[in-house]
């Protein structure tokens, strides 16, 4: 490694122990002093780090900025991601227009607001049932296992059209696939079983379609708009992309609200669904849980903010830094559930902006709108300094969240 590379800040940057929900202090300093600057990552490579809200919007919609993770300049999150890139099928997560546009069009339909809203009663029932069970069980309890983890997996099972009789299999295999501490061979075996299961279910839905996402993809496979393999991979991708993220927004979101009792009171006491919806976006902004940033590689030289990003260089977009940019959100370090928060970038920005954002918003609206009302005395059953935060995963989170009432 060159001396110049060694002197660069090492990304990801460290959060301050006393402010576990705030972005790393150094990332905030970079945003003020060097908003587009080089950093060093795990493999010694030196991609650019973009921290301002406005610069992220400009670059994430620039067609020269690519999601092609086969490009040698791509700034992989870790060694595992670098290793699997060449054997990963081309999906919406690693293609550019026009291929990305084609693939995204085949899966967008079920995720538009109008379609997603139809799932509200089913999601409300899932959340109500889990809270019933929680209230009947031990007190204190870990909110992660009681509510945060089961909600997204039950919801995605419902949305994909997994029959009720298979929920146990689906739930246990998906949590194993998502468990980063599981032995790799076990994870591979279960992941294979899950793909085979989804492939089989897709086949059934192609002959006997229902109102679910797999049936919709089955129709597209029959029409020749996507391959069967793409449909199965998309099913698995939806499960993985939506699980830990949504679960974390339930657990860490609850922690953030418990830390701000005046804000929690607004959420608990409102009769207005718009207030809940805005609170969800504000907590998304405040926490910006995708802590490894959005990663891209540049295909042609780009001049921006007095620097030239050369073709073949990587870029990391730090979402938390952008969402705490005072030019976009005055007093950004304040959790204020009534502020206009919708322009946050917690779901990314541009063509790859989160496919499941309307679903995630809906799940969180139901949870935030139900949990604190039904359990108004909910409180943390441990000191915040006792909580173990996950600093290494794609998603920032807590390993468990003991709560009592
Ligand atoms: C609070 C929960 C969630 C957060 C914070 C989140 C965050 C993100 C972010 C930041 C991206 C952009 C990645 C990039 O530009 O490279 C993304 C993409 C994506 N998300 Fe989510 N996500 C959430 C929930 C979900 C759910 C529930 C699903 C289920 C369908 C989902 C599926 C996806 C997919 C498939 C993509 C790739 C889209 C593309 O590349 O075109 N996400 N998400």
Automatic annotation (TrEMBL):
Belongs to the cytochrome P450 family. This is Cytochrome P450. CDD domains: CYP105-like (cd11030). GO terms for molecular function: heme binding; iron ion binding; monooxygenase activity; oxidoreductase activity, acting on paired donors, with incorporation or reduction of molecular oxygen. The keyword Ligase does not apply. Keywords: Heme, Iron, Metal-binding, Monooxygenase, Oxidoreductase. PANTHER family: CYTOCHROME P450 YJIB-RELATED, P450, PUTATIVE (EUROFUNG)-RELATED.
């Amino acid at each position: 490694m060159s001396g110049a590379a060694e002197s660069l800040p090492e990304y990801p940057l460290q959060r301050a122990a006393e402010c576990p929900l705030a972005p790393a202090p150094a990332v905030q300093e970079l945003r003020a002093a060097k908003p587009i600057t080089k950093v060093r990552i795990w493999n010694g490579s030196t991609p650019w780090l973009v921290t301002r809200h406005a610069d992220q919007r400009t670059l994430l919609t620039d067609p020269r900025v690519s999601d092609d993770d086969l490009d040698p300049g791509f700034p992989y999150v870790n060694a595992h991601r670098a290793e699997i890139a060449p054997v990963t099928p081309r999906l919406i997560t690693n293609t550019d227009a026009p291929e990305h546009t084609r693939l995204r069009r085949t899966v967008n339909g079920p995720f538009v607001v109008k379609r997603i809203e139809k799932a509200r009663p089913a999601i409300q029932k899932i959340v109500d049932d889990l809270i019933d069970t929680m209230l009947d069980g031990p007190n204190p309890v870990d909110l992660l296992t009681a509510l945060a983890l089961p909600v997204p997996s039950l919801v995605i099972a419902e949305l994909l059209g997994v029959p009720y009789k298979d929920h146990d299999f689906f739930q246990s295999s998906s949590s194993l696939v998502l468990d980063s501490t599981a032995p790799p061979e076990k994870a591979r075996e279960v992941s294979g079983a899950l793909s085979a299961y989804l492939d089989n279910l897709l086949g059934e839905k192609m002959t006997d379609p229902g109102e679910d996402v797999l049936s919709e993809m089955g129709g597209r496979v029959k029409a020749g708009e996507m391959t069967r393999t793409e449909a199965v991979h998309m099913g698995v991708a939806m499960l993985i992309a939506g699980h830990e993220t949504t679960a974390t927004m339930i657990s860490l979101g609850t922690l953030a609200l418990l830390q701000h009792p005046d804000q929690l009171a607004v959420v608990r006491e409102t009769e207005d669904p718009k207030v809940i919806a805005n609170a969800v976006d504000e907590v998304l902004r405040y926490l910006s849980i995708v802590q490894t940033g959005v990663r891209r590689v540049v295909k042609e030289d780009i001049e921006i903010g007095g620097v030239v990003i050369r073709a073949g260089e990587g870029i990391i977009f730090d979402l938390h830094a952008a969402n705490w940019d005072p030019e976009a959100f005055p007093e950004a370090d304040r959790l204020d559930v009534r502020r206009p928060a919708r322009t946050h970038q917690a779901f990314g920005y541009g063509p790859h902006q989160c496919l499941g954002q309307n679903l995630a918003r809906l799940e969180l609206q139901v949870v935030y709108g139900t949990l604190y009302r039904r359990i108004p005395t909910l409180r943390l059953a441990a000191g915040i300094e006792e909580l173990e935060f996950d600093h290494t995963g794609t998603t920032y989170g807590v390993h468990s969240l003991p709560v009592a009432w």
